[in-house]
Amino acid sequence: MVKKILMTTIIGFLLMSFTMEEKNPLLQEWNTPFGTPPFDKIKQENYLPAFKAAIEKHTAEVEAIIKNAEKPTFQNTIEELEYSGELLTRVSRVFAAMSEAMTNDELQDISKEVTPMLSKHQDDINLNPELFKRVKTVYEQKDNLKLTTEQSRLLDEYYKSFVRGGANLIDKDKEEFRKINEELSMLSLQFGENVLKETNKYELVLSTEEELAGLPETIKEMGASEAAEKGYSGKWVYTIQRPSMYPFLTYSTRRDLREKLYKAYINRGDNDDSLDNKKILSRIASLRLKKANLLGYTTHANYVLDDEMAKTPEQVYDLLNKLWTPALEVAKKERADMQKIIDNEGGNFKLQSWDWWYYADKVKKAKYDLDEEELRPYFKVENVIKGVFGLSTKLWGITFEERNDIPKYHPDVKTFEVKDKDGSHIAILYTDYFPRDSKRGGAWMDVFTKQSKKDGKFIHPIVYNVGNFAKPTGDKPSLISVDDVNTLFHEFGHALHGMLSNCTYESLSGTSTPRDFVEFPSQIMENWCMNPVVLKEYAFHYITGEPLPDELIQKINNSGKFNQGFATVEYLAASFLDMDWHTITDTTEQNASDFEKNSLSKRGMIPEIISRYRSTYFNHIFSGGYSSGYYSYIWAEVLDADAFRAFEETGDVYNQDLAGKYRKYILSAGGTEDAMKLYEQFRGKAPEIEPLLEKRGLN
Questions:
Q1: Is 401 a catalytic residue?
Q2: How far is residue 390's CA from residue 681's CA, in Å, rounded to a whole number?
C-alpha cells in the first residue's frame, strides 16, 4: 500500500513538472555541447521555480529511500542518497556561479528567498530519524560489507555528515539547530552582499595630472579606461578592486591619495552605516559556537577541524606560532629598510600601512634593480594562459582547444575543451578573468558538473576559473602583475584537481578533500609559474614578441624572498583572527573592533601592517567556506614546498615519472583516501617544513 501511494505521488509530481520543464531550461535536458549550461536560454525568472521543483523532486527521491521496505544496504541507501538531488545540485551550481560572477539586485533578492529554503531542505534530510537509522544500520555493518576503499570512504563521509548535521540530537535541540542554520545562512549571505556593495561603491575620481604624479602610463590608462566606463569625461578613476588599487599604492607619489584609497579598502564593512558588518559577524561567531556546543564540541574550530588534517585548534596555533616569530622579525627589518629611505629623502613622517607598497617598491629597485612595471609587458594575460596550458601539456600531455559553440554567460568568458594525450575528452573549462561590478572580488574555481561514474558511464567535469585581473585598455591588452600571474596559476591548479579527477562518487571527486589539503594542488602551481625554465615558455613581450630577458629572470629569482616578512605576517594575522573568532567559548556577542584589536596586539602585530583581511570584509570565513580554515593555505604550503622540492631534486621540473605519480595520487584521487596517505604515496615520505621556511626566507 505504501509503495503504491508513493509511486502515485512520484508519478503525479513528474506529470506536474513536465509542463514546467517545457518552459524552464534549468529543468530540461541540456542539449548543448558536452551538456554545458544553456546560458543563452536561462533567464533570471527561471531560478526560483527551478529551485522549488528541484527541492520537491529531491524530497521525493529521499522519501523513496526511507520507504524502501528492503533492509538497508550500501546500494539502496548510501548510493541512492549519493545519486539523489542531481537536479537540485545542477540548479544550485548555475545559480551560485551567477550570484558570484553576474549578480544584480534581482539575483540577490532570489538568494534571500532561496537560502532559507535550502537550509530547511538540508536540515529536513540531515535530521530525519528514519533516514539516519538506515544510514547508521549500513555503517554499523561496514566491516562485513566487502566495500572498496572508495565505497568505505563514502560510507564514512555520509555517516559523519549526518552526525555533524545534527542527526543524534534530541528533538528540542534539533529545533534549535534548524533555527541556527537558517539564521546563519541569511547572515552569511548579507555579509557577502555588504562587502560587494562596499567594494563597488567607492571611487577615487581624479581630475588633474598633478593627482597622477608617479603613475606609469599603463596605470594612467587603466584609470582613464575605468573613468570612461563609469561615465566620467576627462577624468581618471581608481577603485578598491585589487588590480586598480595595488598599482596606485605602489607608484603614486601622492601620499594623501594613497591614504584615502587604502583606508577605503580596509574600512569596508566598518563604517557604521547600512553596510556595516560588525554586528553581523559577531552574531555569526556566536551562533557557530552555539551550534558546535549542541553537537558536543567546545568551540566552532574544534567542530570544523575534527574533519580536517589539522584535527585540533592546538595543532593550527602551533604551526602559526612557529612561523609568526621569524616572520615578524623579518617584517621589522623590512620596515627599517623603508623608514631609512623615507629619512634619507627628507620625509618628516613615520611609515604607515598605506606607504608600504610604495616604499617596498623603492627598496626592491634599490636592492634588486627590479621594477614591477618592467615585467608587466611580458605578462599579457593570453600568454599567461598559454603558459599554464603549456605546462599542463608538458607534465601530463593534456591539451586545450578553444570552443566557440558553447553558450557563455558574459562576453569576457572563454571556453575550452580539454583532451588527454590520446585525444580523448577530459573536461570543459570556462575562464572569466576581468573585473566588473556584478562580480565579487578575488579569484576562485568551481564546477557546473563534477566528475563521477554512474551506470558504467564516465561523467566528465565542467569546470570554471574566475579572476579579477587588469582589463585591456585602449589598444593595450590585459597586462598583469607577477602577483596576478601567481593567482592565475593557483586557480588553475584547483581547476586541474577538478578536471583530472578519476573517482566513482561525486561526493569524493575532484576538490572534495579536507580544506587544509585542497589548497595543495593549487599552490604547487605557483612554484612552476616563476621558475626560469617555465618562464621561457610563456613570458613574451606583448609588442616585440621577445622573451623575458635572462637578466630580468635573474632579478625575479634574486628577489624571490623579498617582502616575505610582510606577506607572511599579513597572512598569519588573518589566520589568527579566524582562529580567535572561532575558538571563543562564550556565546556573548563580541565587540568586533575590540576583539580584532586584542587578537592582533597580543601577538605584537606592528601597526604598519594591516591583516590581509580585517574581520568586517573577511569573506573567506564569514561568507565563504573557510571558517576555522584560513590557516589551510600555509598548512598546504608545507606540502607544496616539499612536493616541488621533489621535482627540483630530479633536476627536471617537467619530470614525467613524478608528474604521473602526482596525477595518480593527488589530482585523480580526490578525497577517496586519507589525505596524508595520498601525499605519502606520491612523495614516498611525510612532508617536511624546512622547504617552506627556506622558500619564504624565514630560516
A1: no
A2: 26
